[in-house]
Write a structure and sequence with these properties.
Length: about 675
């Protein structure tokens, strides 16, 4: 062990770090206070050594004892002044993440916690302050996850940040691949067509299905000239001298800027509001020749926005006609709606006016979620925090979705969760859920799902009735339509508990009846009110036998220096000493004995003052009389109807200490030297 040297010319921050490192070494070596004082003075050099020589002389002249605690106080006063501590407190108060990563922000946050003990000692305040300093994108996600501790808040923020970085990296890679993989003209597509010409059409379709994530699919003999030559489009195009440009979105034989799919229209008829698979003119178009401008476009896209089917009912999302407000996108993976609408309604508003909304709970991919049925929403949505918490997988939309709310706020998204399973008991709904920043609900079911399952809303009773064309008819009762408390079966309860959810047991008490019971209403007890008093009325009287402390012969008085206490503990010590002095349980002492005190936190959060009498206990003669057996005591209770017990909060204080043993109960504090006249509790 090589303790660091302190010269005295370091900054306040270095001085504070040096003092804590020395204390850490002493704690690990388990040195007592006298040895700590001797060793720490040997570590002082130059101006620090000269300062200590002058300070120790001044302390001796004023009659103040030089102890480890005295050195700690005068050192901090000299090298770590209150102005430095106040500056660190202000830095902690205005600390924010800014450009720091979550790990860097957490390290700086933990370093400043030492200067704000009123926050460091309270787990909830520490967690709340950490979350408030996060950047806006992380703040909302961590806040909705409701961390129960500071450690959980840090872990959640790191997990979300890493997920956001990973998603951004994947998007950058995809965008780079799209920028570099777009065909410029005849070259790449012609060679691909010439290679695919040697395969049968059935094999080409299998290859296209297996490469579902490839941007283009082989066109086969679609562009091959009918000739006996083995070469196809590549050779023909070269001989003609014309450049054939293929669409980068659908693979059709036209430029990307002329593709009607970019504008969200049907690939068959060119009209807005539906896809080619549900086009009303599909039957006629299959028998007739396709128009010149749209030839082959219905088969040109290798990946389509697959609509989930439930029974026989197709899923048909509403799509606003017209171009996207963001123009042409560089990610042509899945076409999606360019504009959507959702009602802005918070959970607090829903609880205040339950008759205005229909909501409850369901399972989204077997994860419990708060769901809202919104007939004013054009699409269905899933919250960003729910998505991150459960690690769900989404696919990118071709265009950015702009979601309008009644309060004028526009939200944006470019990800969608395909074929999401929403399970309500034994019934399930399939929905495409757009990922959106929602704060009060995990999932919003919009008109796309409600119309797909032929749902009708009973606003008066708060019921959503589902009447699909095929399958069982069923009703969903809103959270406030049937019962104030949503009920689950025993099997569902065990399933939720096995997934790590918290369970609570709640039982009702009649507060009015319990509070009306008075001491005078209890038989037998009402005849002895002094026995059952809340507080001791005064100093206990002299009794036949007082409490005595018998020591091993030859034991010398034991005295130890007081322990270090935090500012909050010093304030609590002052309060408890004043209370004991007022009751007469302690008095100022001149005893050569002296034990240190410390505080122990109780379950309710309060602090109990305890005196370290371990050295005194070692020198005390142990009692040899046998203790009664618990089983025998219970056997003696047979036939009894009224029981009483000693309240240990004040039971010890009812016994006086023998006069010649009072000096042995002395204890040392910052506020003076005291001794107990009654038995000490704790």
């Amino acid at each position: 062990m090589s303790p660091p040297i302190f010269n005295g010319d370091e900054s306040s921050e270095d001085a504070d770090s040096w003092l804590h490192s020395v204390i850490h070494l002493f704690d690990r070596a388990q040195y007592d206070d006298d040895l700590r004082l001797r060793l720490v003075t040997l570590l002082l050099r130059k101006s620090a050594e000269r300062w200590w020589r002058g300070t120790s002389s001044t302390l001796l002249e004023t009659g103040v004892g030089i102890t480890w605690d005295t050195f700690y106080q005068v050192f901090r006063k000299e090298y770590v002044p209150d102005s430095y501590v106040a500056a660190r407190e202000r830095e902690f108060e205005f600390l924010e993440q800014g450009s720091l990563s979550v790990r860097e922000y957490a390290r700086k946050f933990s370093a400043l916690l030492a200067y704000v003990p009123h926050v460091a000692g309270r787990e909830r305040a520490k967690s709340t302050r950490f979350v408030e300093g996060l950047n806006g994108d992380l703040y909302q996600s961590v806040l909705t996850s409701k961390p129960k501790s500071y450690t959980e808040a840090v872990d959640t923020a790191i997990h979300i940040e890493e997920g956001m970085k990973s998603r951004s990296a994947r998007r950058a890679q995809v965008a780079q691949a799209v920028q570099g993989g777009r065909p410029a003209g005849q070259g790449a597509q012609s060679s691909q067509s010439s290679q695919s010409a040697h395969f049968p059409q059935q094999q080409q379709q299998q290859v296209a299905q297996q490469s579902g994530r490839q941007r283009f699919r082989p066109r086969g003999q679609q562009f091959k000239k009918k000739s006996g030559s083995g070469s196809s489009g590549s050779g023909s195009s070269s001989s003609s001298g014309s450049r054939v440009e293929f669409c980068g979105f659908c693979g059709g034989k036209h430029s990307s800027t002329q593709c009607v799919g970019v504008q969200g229209s049907c690939n068959l008829c060119g009209q807005y509001g539906h896809f080619a698979r549900v086009c009303p003119t599909a039957g006629a178009q299959q028998t007739a020749a396709q128009p010149q401008g749209h030839g082959g476009q219905s088969r040109g896209r290798s990946q389509q926005f697959q609509q989930p089917l439930f029974g026989e009912t197709p899923f048909r999302p509403f799509q606003q006609p017209g171009p996207s407000r963001f123009g042409q996108s560089s990610q042509p993976f899945f076409p999606g709606p360019q504009h959507a609408q959702v009602n802005a309604f918070t959970r607090e508003q829903a609880e205040e006016t339950p008759s205005r909304v229909i909501g409850g709970t369901c399972l989204v991919f077997e994860f419990p979620a708060r769901v809202l049925f919104d007939t004013g929403a054009s699409h269905s949505f899933i919250s960003d925090s729910f998505f991150v918490e459960h690690g769900l997988c989404t696919v990118p939309l071709r265009d950015v979705v702009s979601v309008s709310t009644p309060d004028g706020v526009s939200l944006f998204s470019q990800e969608i969760l395909l074929d999401g399973v929403l399970r309500f008991g034994e019934h399930a709904l399939l929905a495409n859920l757009i990922r959106l920043m929602l704060w009060d609900f995990d999932c919003i079911v919009g008109m796309d799902v409600l119309s797909n399952y032929r749902a009708s809303v009973d606003c008066f009773h708060g019921i959503v009735r589902f009447r699909p064309l095929s399958g069982e008819k069923w009703d969903f009762y809103g959270q406030d339509s049937r019962s104030k408390i949503p009920l689950v079966s025993v099997m569902e309860m065990f399933s939720l508990l096995s997934l790590g959810n918290a369970g609570f047991m709640i039982y009702a008490l009649d507060a009015s009846s319990s509070s009306s019971v008075q001491l005078s209403d209890v038989p037998v007890v009402r005849h002895f009110p002094d026995v059952f008093s809340e507080e001791i009325l005064g100093f206990p009287p002299r009794r036949e036998i007082d409490f005595s402390i018998e020591l091993v012969p030859g034991t010398a008085p034991i005295s130890r220096a007081p322990y270090r206490l935090a500012p909050a503990e010093l304030r609590e010590l002052k309060v408890q000493l004043d209370d004991l002095l007022e009751k007469g349980f302690i008095r100022p002492s001149m005893s050569p004995w002296g034990a240190p005190i410390l505080f122990v936190k109780k379950k309710d959060g309060s602090m109990r003052m305890c005196i370290d009498f371990r050295q005194l206990n070692k020198a005390t003669l142990k009692n040899k009389y046998p203790l009664p057996r618990i089983d025998d005591l219970f056997d003696q209770l047979q036939g009894s109807a009224v029981y009483s017990k000693i309240d240990l909060r004040s039971g010890y204080h009812q016994l006086r200490v023998r006069d010649q043993d009072v000096a042995k109960t002395a204890f040392r504090t910052r506020y003076g030297h005291f001794e107990f006249l009654v038995i000490r509790l704790g």
